[in-house]
Fold:
Amino acid sequence: MILLVWFMSTFGFQTEGLDTLSLKEVEVTAPVYQRFGQGQKAIAWTSEDIQGYNSRTLSDLLQETSPIFARQYGPGMLSSPSFRGTSAGHTALFWNGLPINSPSLGQSDLSLIPILAIDQADLQFGSSGALIGNESIGGSIQLRSTAKFSLTPHLLFSQEFGSFGTYNTRIKAGFSTEKLAFQTKAYRLFTENNYRFEDLSKPGTPTVDQEHGQVNQYGIVQDLSWKTKENQLLNSSFWYNRANREIQAPMGSNTQDLQEDESWKWSLDYEIFMQKASWLFKSGLVQDHLTFNGSLSKTRQLFFGAEWDYSTKNKWKFHAGTRFSFIKGDLSTYSATDQRIEFFESIQFLANEKLTFSFNGRHFVYLDNFKPLIPSLGLDWKIQQSEGQSLTLKASGSMGFKVPTLNDRFWKPGGNPDLLPEKSWNAESGFLWQSKNLEQSLTGYWMDVDNWIIWLPNGSVWSPQNIRKVRSEGIEYQGKANFQTGKIHWNPHWQYSFNRAVSIQGIAENDPSLGKQLPYTPQHQATVGIGGKLNGFSISFAGDYTGKRSVTADNPRMMDPFTLWNSRFSYEGFSIGKIKIPMQFRIQNLFDTNYQVLYLRPMPGRSYHFNLSIQL
Structure:
């Protein structure tokens, strides 16, 4: 019904530009992790940056355009992020400022997050417990959806057809005035995953068909922004997502597992802007149902919080706030609740036009445990600044932490309620060089993670213990440019990362994993790509390289490196009257590379995808 109303109200209207217009007497500020994250590496994507991924998932975006390694169990299957050698549970994931990782598992499945559902995405690297909160040991992923003011009604319908029985449908519609903005997004992603692969578990490695890997996902996102007064703003977002999946079995297995994921997310913010200060009151609900082979697991998270910002005329900025979380888990072996209270504060000092310092602190209470202070310090120093270019030194030191998950503490049998939080110390430093047409950054980092939780056999029962200590260190280099040859606009980009993540304390003195690279953690990763635009035509060509990975902690088996190349061609100049008809054609795995991300988990070969849209 909502979509029908949008269609009736938008048909016949011409689409205007999608740039955000300033709100009179309302100062919309950047998120706190951007304003007080001095010294830390960050990547930000705008809606224009991610437009080419609108029919794909967050897993695809991260793997192809960032230094993050996505551990994929197959196309459409579980995909988890790894920042700088840490595990998926060491990545904090936020949607509109709400933490949305599963409290029972301590992580999220990136393959269940379609890009269409979000408008902006940011990455924060390194331990950020003070600034971000729980789980942000390796880094954090920040997702946001926004309804924009002062736009004429618009409607987008898009249909994609692809190899291996892929059919993706998405609809996006919106309407706004100077005081009220609506946005609705709906999607359905379907694939048979009926590709062919070489089965390494059978003699002669015959080529066989993937017969159990169907994915059917659909959902809707509703955003509302209301300027209740000249200096007050109400934002509300609701996101419903459901996915039914045939879990792809590893080579050599005949399992026929089925999984259903269903989630509801709702955020409600109220902002009050004053001359030097602002208030943000935040609440939200995240509810997840996971049914695996008929066994249902339910978790619910309820959040309430308030934040205050204050700026002096020229030198100081202050931020303080609190968040209360109520968590409940009902799983097959246990039912448990958890309550958490956080207090946090940030200070930024502008020493001069070139030098900025920040301090962040967080105080955390859960059950009977108290973390008195989780600190971080950072600085940005513009060493050189001249017309058209600048060189900035960034440096920071920070602490991260992760509360044991509900499964870690309460699983029966084996849960360990006496587990300590995992904690980390992180230091990084680097340079950012920017000019009119070129940007480059180089970052070096060091991180120790202590009390790393591992499940180990305890008699006939497995139980988690604070055993491992891990050290991660490396470098990350990124660059992008834009230039013009004749009438063609080019935008090449490139990046390389080296990561050494090893165990320095194991389960025993003679642990063979000591000093070895962590499993499924490539030391070398790189991406390179270039895109060009001319008169509505655009073309891009990109590749990403993943180095060798070990299968087990003691490294006896290594997986071969692989490089995947993708290409995309689109045309946005075709229209019929006021109706625009953008078209896109892309090829994934252009050279039909035979590869695996994880051992015995087959991945598809070359695939073709055609996308046709109707935009009003």
In short: Residues 1-27 have pLDDT under 50 and may be disordered.
